[in-house]
């Protein structure tokens, strides 16, 4: 039994409502939190990110990203780094040392809905959202900076000095 320090009045507080998945589409969002977490097996770690929709009907709804940065499966690590690259580009921050550099920088997420049913382990799951992509609010993510090319010349390369 738990003894409460004060009288709890359920009539004074709105109850939690069940969240249906957000319809597929593009939504403005931002990262509001992140942390290292251990994998279930304990053999690796992933970056857990809390992402919040910033506008529209679903403003305030939260989604989560898991980036398997430290994992024995090289494919999982590759996918994690590619996703981190997409997120960084969408935020306009191409070089980061800590994930906090990405906080509160708005970008666009593309959502899909994973239908209800058994997952890959046979566990029956409710329908849920899955983030399928990241892009800047302006449409496309900024490209990585490339070395500047020399000025174009109409002379063939062997005649340039």
Short description:
It is built from one helix and seven strands, in the order E-E-E-H-E-E-E-E. By secondary structure, the protein is mainly beta.
Describe this structure in words.
By secondary structure, this protein is mainly β. The protein has a single domain, classed as Beta Barrel (OB fold (Dihydrolipoamide Acetyltransferase, E2P)), CATH 2.40.50. 11% of the residues lie in helices and 32% in strands. It is built from 1 helix and 7 strands; from the N terminus they run βββαββββ. The chain has a 5-stranded antiparallel β-sheet with strand order 3-2-1-4-7, covered by helices on one side. The protein has a two-stranded antiparallel sheet with strand order 5-6. β1 and β2 form a beta hairpin. It is globular and about 50 Å long.
Q: What's the domain count?
A: 1
Count of distinct strands: 7
C-alpha-based Rg, rounded: 22 Å
Report the helical percentage. Answer: 10-25%
Helix count? 1
Query: What number is the mean pLDDT?
Result: 86
Order of helices and strands: EEEHEEEE
Strand proportion, as a percent range, falls in: 25-35%
Please report the first level of CATH classification, the CATH class: Mainly Beta
Shape: globular
Q: Assign the CATH architecture.
A: Beta Barrel
How far is it from the N-terminal to the C-terminal residue, by CA? 88 Å
Major sheet: arrangement of strands: 3-2-1-4-7
CATH domain topology = OB fold (Dihydrolipoamide Acetyltransferase, E2P)
């Amino acid at each position: 039994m738990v003894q409460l320090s004060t009288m709890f009045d359920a009539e004074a507080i709105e109850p939690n409502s069940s969240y249906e998945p957000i319809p597929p589409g593009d939504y403005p969002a931002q990262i509001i939190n992140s942390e290292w977490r251990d994998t279930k097996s304990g053999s690796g770690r992933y970056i857990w990110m809390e992402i919040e929709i910033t506008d529209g009907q679903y403003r305030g709804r939260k989604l989560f990203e898991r980036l398997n940065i430290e994992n024995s499966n090289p494919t999982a690590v590759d996918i994690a780094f590619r996703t981190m690259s997409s997120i960084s580009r969408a935020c306009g921050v191409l070089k980061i040392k800590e994930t906090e550099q990405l906080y509160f920088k708005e970008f666009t997420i593309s959502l899909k809905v994973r239908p209800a049913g058994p997952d890959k382990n046979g566990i029956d799951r409710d329908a849920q959202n899955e983030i399928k992509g990241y892009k800047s609010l302006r449409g496309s993510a900024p490209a990585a900076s490339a070395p500047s090319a020399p000025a174009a010349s109409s002379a063939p390369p062997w005649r340039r000095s």
